[in-house]
Design brief:
Elements (H helix, E strand, L loop, with lengths): L6 E2 L2 E7 L3 E2 L14 H14 L5 E5 L7 E5 L1 H9 L4 E6 L4 H10 L9 H14 L5 H4 L3 H10 L4 H8 L5 H7 L4 H11 L8 H11 L6 H10 L14 H5 L8 H16 L11
Parallel strand pairs: 3-5, 4-6
Antiparallel strand pairs: 1-2, 2-6, 4-5
Amino acid sequence: MPCYGMNFDMETVVEIKISDIRFFGQSRKDHYFKSQEAKITELAESIRRVGILEPLIVRKDKSGKAKYELIAGETRLKAAQKNGMETVPCIIRELEDFDARRQYSDTNIYRENLSIMEKAYMIRSQRENWEDIKAEEMDVTEKQKLKYIRLTELISMMQELIDSRQISVDSGSLASELPKEIQKLICINIAGTKRILMPQAVKELSSLCRKRKITPDDVEEVILKTQPDVKKCVTYRVPRSTLRRLPEEYRKKSKFEELVMQVCEMLADGRLTLPKRKK
Protein backbone atom coordinates (compact mmCIF):
# COMPACT_ATOMS: atom_id res chain seq x y z
CA MET A 1 0.00 0.00 0.00
CA PRO A 2 1.73 3.21 -1.14
CA CYS A 3 1.91 6.15 1.24
CA TYR A 4 1.60 9.00 -1.26
CA GLY A 5 -1.17 11.47 -0.57
CA MET A 6 -0.39 11.17 3.16
CA ASN A 7 0.94 14.10 5.17
CA PHE A 8 4.14 12.81 6.80
CA ASP A 9 5.06 15.00 9.80
CA MET A 10 3.56 18.05 8.03
CA GLU A 11 5.57 17.39 4.84
CA THR A 12 3.92 16.47 1.58
CA VAL A 13 4.65 13.00 0.20
CA VAL A 14 4.70 12.63 -3.58
CA GLU A 15 5.34 9.73 -5.95
CA ILE A 16 8.57 10.11 -7.97
CA LYS A 17 9.86 7.91 -10.77
CA ILE A 18 12.81 5.76 -9.68
CA SER A 19 14.54 6.61 -12.96
CA ASP A 20 14.52 10.29 -11.92
CA ILE A 21 16.50 9.63 -8.70
CA ARG A 22 20.25 9.18 -8.36
CA PHE A 23 22.18 8.09 -5.28
CA PHE A 24 23.70 10.66 -2.95
CA GLY A 25 27.09 12.26 -3.50
CA GLN A 26 29.69 12.43 -6.23
CA SER A 27 32.26 9.93 -4.87
CA ARG A 28 32.94 7.30 -2.19
CA LYS A 29 33.91 10.14 0.14
CA ASP A 30 30.29 11.40 0.00
CA HIS A 31 28.36 8.19 -0.70
CA TYR A 32 29.92 5.85 1.82
CA PHE A 33 27.00 3.72 3.03
CA LYS A 34 26.25 0.45 1.23
CA SER A 35 22.96 -1.43 1.27
CA GLN A 36 23.32 -5.07 2.25
CA GLU A 37 21.79 -7.50 -0.23
CA ALA A 38 20.11 -9.53 2.53
CA LYS A 39 18.42 -6.38 3.87
CA ILE A 40 17.29 -5.39 0.37
CA THR A 41 15.71 -8.82 -0.18
CA GLU A 42 14.05 -8.78 3.24
CA LEU A 43 12.65 -5.29 2.71
CA ALA A 44 11.50 -6.13 -0.82
CA GLU A 45 9.36 -8.94 0.63
CA SER A 46 7.90 -6.55 3.22
CA ILE A 47 7.14 -3.95 0.54
CA ARG A 48 5.32 -6.58 -1.53
CA ARG A 49 3.05 -7.20 1.47
CA VAL A 50 2.42 -3.73 2.89
CA GLY A 51 4.09 -1.20 0.60
CA ILE A 52 6.66 1.45 1.55
CA LEU A 53 5.60 2.73 4.96
CA GLU A 54 8.19 5.50 5.30
CA PRO A 55 8.86 7.86 2.39
CA LEU A 56 12.33 8.47 0.99
CA ILE A 57 13.96 11.89 1.33
CA VAL A 58 15.29 13.59 -1.79
CA ARG A 59 16.37 17.03 -2.95
CA LYS A 60 16.48 18.53 -6.43
CA ASP A 61 19.70 17.45 -8.12
CA LYS A 62 22.01 20.41 -8.72
CA SER A 63 24.43 18.36 -10.82
CA GLY A 64 21.97 17.86 -13.66
CA LYS A 65 22.61 14.10 -13.71
CA ALA A 66 19.04 13.41 -12.61
CA LYS A 67 15.95 15.28 -11.42
CA TYR A 68 16.47 14.32 -7.78
CA GLU A 69 19.30 13.26 -5.46
CA LEU A 70 18.56 10.67 -2.78
CA ILE A 71 19.33 11.75 0.79
CA ALA A 72 17.75 8.93 2.80
CA GLY A 73 16.21 5.59 1.82
CA GLU A 74 18.75 3.79 -0.37
CA THR A 75 17.71 0.33 0.83
CA ARG A 76 14.05 1.16 0.24
CA LEU A 77 14.86 2.42 -3.25
CA LYS A 78 16.81 -0.73 -4.16
CA ALA A 79 14.08 -2.94 -2.69
CA ALA A 80 11.50 -1.11 -4.79
CA GLN A 81 13.67 -1.63 -7.89
CA LYS A 82 13.93 -5.32 -7.01
CA ASN A 83 10.13 -5.50 -6.98
CA GLY A 84 9.91 -3.85 -10.39
CA MET A 85 8.23 -0.70 -9.05
CA GLU A 86 8.39 2.40 -11.23
CA THR A 87 7.77 5.05 -8.55
CA VAL A 88 8.46 5.52 -4.84
CA PRO A 89 6.92 7.85 -2.23
CA CYS A 90 9.25 10.75 -1.41
CA ILE A 91 9.54 13.95 0.57
CA ILE A 92 11.30 16.69 -1.40
CA ARG A 93 13.41 18.96 0.79
CA GLU A 94 15.27 22.12 -0.07
CA LEU A 95 18.75 21.37 1.24
CA GLU A 96 22.12 23.00 0.73
CA ASP A 97 25.14 20.70 0.43
CA PHE A 98 26.06 21.09 4.11
CA ASP A 99 22.59 20.10 5.35
CA ALA A 100 22.29 17.31 2.76
CA ARG A 101 25.55 15.71 3.95
CA ARG A 102 24.45 16.01 7.54
CA GLN A 103 21.05 14.41 6.96
CA TYR A 104 22.66 11.62 4.90
CA SER A 105 24.97 10.84 7.83
CA ASP A 106 22.38 11.28 10.60
CA THR A 107 19.91 8.89 8.98
CA ASN A 108 22.53 6.13 8.93
CA ILE A 109 24.61 6.63 12.09
CA TYR A 110 22.55 4.21 14.20
CA ARG A 111 22.09 1.64 11.44
CA GLU A 112 22.86 -1.96 12.40
CA ASN A 113 25.96 -3.72 11.11
CA LEU A 114 27.94 -0.72 9.91
CA SER A 115 31.09 -1.93 8.18
CA ILE A 116 34.48 -0.66 9.30
CA MET A 117 34.87 1.52 6.21
CA GLU A 118 31.36 2.94 6.49
CA LYS A 119 32.20 3.95 10.04
CA ALA A 120 35.54 5.39 8.89
CA TYR A 121 34.01 7.57 6.19
CA MET A 122 31.26 8.67 8.57
CA ILE A 123 33.79 9.83 11.16
CA ARG A 124 35.76 11.65 8.48
CA SER A 125 32.67 13.35 7.06
CA GLN A 126 31.46 14.41 10.49
CA ARG A 127 34.85 15.88 11.38
CA GLU A 128 35.30 17.71 8.06
CA ASN A 129 31.80 19.12 7.74
CA TRP A 130 30.42 19.87 11.19
CA GLU A 131 30.73 18.88 14.84
CA ASP A 132 32.63 15.77 15.78
CA ILE A 133 30.83 12.52 16.57
CA LYS A 134 30.51 11.94 20.29
CA ALA A 135 32.78 9.12 21.40
CA GLU A 136 29.97 7.19 23.09
CA GLU A 137 27.87 7.22 19.90
CA MET A 138 30.50 5.34 17.90
CA ASP A 139 32.24 3.37 20.69
CA VAL A 140 35.62 4.82 19.72
CA THR A 141 38.22 6.89 21.52
CA GLU A 142 39.75 10.06 20.08
CA LYS A 143 42.90 8.10 19.20
CA GLN A 144 40.81 5.48 17.43
CA LYS A 145 38.94 8.14 15.43
CA LEU A 146 42.23 9.26 13.89
CA LYS A 147 43.01 5.67 12.94
CA TYR A 148 39.62 5.30 11.25
CA ILE A 149 40.10 8.54 9.30
CA ARG A 150 43.46 7.26 7.99
CA LEU A 151 41.67 4.20 6.58
CA THR A 152 39.83 6.43 4.10
CA GLU A 153 43.21 7.32 2.54
CA LEU A 154 43.91 3.70 1.57
CA ILE A 155 43.41 2.35 -1.94
CA SER A 156 39.97 0.81 -2.52
CA MET A 157 41.34 -2.74 -2.73
CA MET A 158 42.83 -2.43 0.75
CA GLN A 159 39.62 -0.94 2.11
CA GLU A 160 37.77 -4.05 0.92
CA LEU A 161 40.25 -6.25 2.80
CA ILE A 162 39.63 -4.19 5.93
CA ASP A 163 35.90 -4.86 5.67
CA SER A 164 36.65 -8.58 5.21
CA ARG A 165 38.82 -8.50 8.38
CA GLN A 166 42.07 -9.52 6.68
CA ILE A 167 43.45 -6.16 7.69
CA SER A 168 42.76 -4.70 11.11
CA VAL A 169 42.09 -1.03 11.88
CA ASP A 170 45.55 -0.74 13.45
CA SER A 171 47.34 -2.32 10.48
CA GLY A 172 45.31 -0.32 7.97
CA SER A 173 46.01 2.92 9.79
CA LEU A 174 49.74 2.25 9.63
CA ALA A 175 49.51 1.17 5.98
CA SER A 176 47.95 4.50 5.00
CA GLU A 177 51.47 5.98 5.17
CA LEU A 178 52.81 3.47 2.63
CA PRO A 179 53.03 4.43 -1.06
CA LYS A 180 49.97 3.28 -3.03
CA GLU A 181 52.04 0.89 -5.13
CA ILE A 182 53.15 -0.90 -1.94
CA GLN A 183 49.57 -1.03 -0.71
CA LYS A 184 48.63 -2.69 -4.00
CA LEU A 185 51.40 -5.29 -3.65
CA ILE A 186 50.16 -6.12 -0.15
CA CYS A 187 46.60 -6.58 -1.39
CA ILE A 188 47.69 -8.82 -4.26
CA ASN A 189 49.67 -10.92 -1.78
CA ILE A 190 46.94 -11.55 0.79
CA ALA A 191 43.70 -11.35 -1.23
CA GLY A 192 42.05 -14.73 -1.60
CA THR A 193 44.28 -16.30 1.08
CA LYS A 194 44.02 -16.81 4.84
CA ARG A 195 46.91 -14.44 5.42
CA ILE A 196 46.39 -11.31 7.48
CA LEU A 197 48.36 -8.09 7.55
CA MET A 198 50.04 -7.64 10.93
CA PRO A 199 51.14 -4.21 12.23
CA GLN A 200 54.72 -5.49 12.45
CA ALA A 201 54.68 -6.32 8.72
CA VAL A 202 53.60 -2.77 7.87
CA LYS A 203 56.37 -1.32 10.04
CA GLU A 204 58.99 -3.52 8.38
CA LEU A 205 57.77 -2.67 4.87
CA SER A 206 57.72 1.03 5.76
CA SER A 207 61.32 0.83 6.97
CA LEU A 208 62.37 -1.18 3.91
CA CYS A 209 60.80 1.18 1.35
CA ARG A 210 62.80 4.07 2.80
CA LYS A 211 65.99 2.21 1.91
CA ARG A 212 65.21 0.79 -1.53
CA LYS A 213 62.51 -0.15 -4.01
CA ILE A 214 60.29 -2.95 -2.71
CA THR A 215 59.53 -5.99 -4.86
CA PRO A 216 56.63 -8.47 -4.67
CA ASP A 217 59.10 -10.98 -3.19
CA ASP A 218 59.94 -8.54 -0.39
CA VAL A 219 56.26 -8.19 0.45
CA GLU A 220 55.81 -11.97 0.38
CA GLU A 221 58.74 -12.54 2.72
CA VAL A 222 57.70 -9.91 5.26
CA ILE A 223 54.03 -10.94 5.35
CA LEU A 224 54.83 -14.63 5.74
CA LYS A 225 57.33 -14.20 8.54
CA THR A 226 54.95 -11.98 10.53
CA GLN A 227 51.93 -14.30 10.36
CA PRO A 228 50.65 -15.28 13.83
CA ASP A 229 51.96 -18.61 15.07
CA VAL A 230 49.02 -21.00 15.13
CA LYS A 231 50.87 -23.20 17.62
CA LYS A 232 50.85 -20.32 20.10
CA CYS A 233 47.09 -19.83 19.88
CA VAL A 234 45.19 -20.46 23.12
CA THR A 235 42.17 -22.75 23.28
CA TYR A 236 39.22 -21.92 25.52
CA ARG A 237 36.02 -23.82 26.15
CA VAL A 238 32.76 -21.94 25.65
CA PRO A 239 29.54 -23.39 27.12
CA ARG A 240 26.93 -24.30 24.50
CA SER A 241 24.38 -22.29 26.47
CA THR A 242 26.48 -19.16 25.82
CA LEU A 243 26.86 -19.92 22.12
CA ARG A 244 23.09 -20.34 21.76
CA ARG A 245 22.61 -16.78 23.01
CA LEU A 246 24.70 -15.40 20.13
CA PRO A 247 23.16 -14.41 16.78
CA GLU A 248 23.00 -17.49 14.56
CA GLU A 249 25.66 -16.18 12.14
CA TYR A 250 28.28 -16.19 14.94
CA ARG A 251 27.67 -19.80 16.02
CA LYS A 252 29.80 -21.13 13.19
CA LYS A 253 33.44 -21.71 14.19
CA SER A 254 34.98 -19.33 11.66
CA LYS A 255 32.58 -16.50 12.47
CA PHE A 256 32.94 -17.05 16.21
CA GLU A 257 36.73 -16.84 15.91
CA GLU A 258 36.37 -13.57 13.98
CA LEU A 259 34.09 -12.23 16.72
CA VAL A 260 36.56 -13.14 19.47
CA MET A 261 39.44 -11.54 17.56
CA GLN A 262 37.41 -8.37 17.02
CA VAL A 263 36.46 -8.14 20.70
CA CYS A 264 40.10 -8.68 21.74
CA GLU A 265 41.26 -5.90 19.38
CA MET A 266 38.59 -3.54 20.72
CA LEU A 267 39.59 -4.25 24.31
CA ALA A 268 43.26 -3.77 23.45
CA ASP A 269 42.86 -0.34 21.87
CA GLY A 270 40.23 1.01 24.24
CA ARG A 271 37.18 0.87 21.97
CA LEU A 272 35.50 -1.54 24.37
CA THR A 273 35.49 -1.72 28.15
CA LEU A 274 33.92 -4.40 30.32
CA PRO A 275 32.12 -3.69 33.59
CA LYS A 276 34.11 -4.63 36.66
CA ARG A 277 33.01 -7.81 38.39
CA LYS A 278 31.42 -7.32 41.77
CA LYS A 279 33.41 -8.95 44.54
